[in-house]
Amino acid sequence: METVSFFQKRIRYEERGTGEPLILIHGVGLDYTMWQMQMEKLSDQFRVIAYDMIGHGGSEHPPAPYSLSQFVEQLAMLLDYLQIEKAHLVGFSMGGMVAQAFTLEYAHKVKTLTIMSAVANRTASQREAVLERVKEVKKNGPSATIEPAIQRWFSEDFMMKHKEIVENVRNRLKQNNPASYLASYTLFATADQLLFPKLHTIEVPTLIVTGEEDIGSNPKMAKQMGTEIASSQVVIVPGMKHMLPIEGAEIVNETIHSFIEKQSNVVR
User: Fold this and answer.
1) Is 246 within 8 Å of 34 (Cβ atoms)?
2) Do 150 and 159 form a contact (C-beta atoms < 8 A)?
3) In angstroms, what CA-CA distances link 47 with 28, 38, 66, 111, 225?
4) Residue 158, Cβ neighbours under 10 Å: how many?
5) What does DSSP say about strands 206-211 and 87-92: parallel, antiparallel, or unpaired?
6) In which band, very low, low, confident or very high, does the pLDDT at 3 lie, cut at 50, 70 and 90?
7) Range of lowest pLDDT (123-127, 198-202, 213-217, 225-229)
8) Is the dihedral of CA 51, 54, 72, 250 positive or negative?
């Protein structure tokens, strides 16, 4: 793990492996540690970099409100610092929103885009449900949403067999700064409205992945994104809920590697 500083702005990140750069962007309330199974496996072929987004973990915690542009510029600064001209982007959940926004702004810096377990074009009822969770966080703090999130994210079978892994995620959620989490969750609840109308302009090769049983980032949303992004493919992982990088690590690693390899062969 390393921490870097930019003009009083702090970004915590970890880097492993060599090869083409692969950037991993975590979900709301989490941090770079959620990607450990990807870093261990994918660093065999890539220079893998996972970092903490604004308002999370060891990175900068600016005052609210947050905007997508802040998260985009944070990633641009990290790439500049690491002297990366072009990278493969993988964004999970809210990180998927950041990856989309970054690609819309800096397409020339993106080799491939992977959008994982991300929301898109929420219906009125879906938007109302997530805004209710924002109200719950505002009223009772981040801890109010932890157990419902764990239930949405993992299958019962995984929770029974891998209690330590689930407990680590639970503990990470408990450590969130209340103000930063509220600001991040508020952005997460609304940013899909800003992104979806622009997705048709993305020309970067794109992989869209979600779990079959993911109720928040559901297969219908993934397919809608696939329809909007011409150069995309959609993968629905059978039997999986939201936390694909952890519960579905093996298939996620293989799917990402195969997708990037296929695109590299197309370029050649």
Assistant:
1) yes
2) yes
3) 24, 11, 29, 14, 28
4) 18
5) unpaired
6) confident
7) 123-127
8) positive
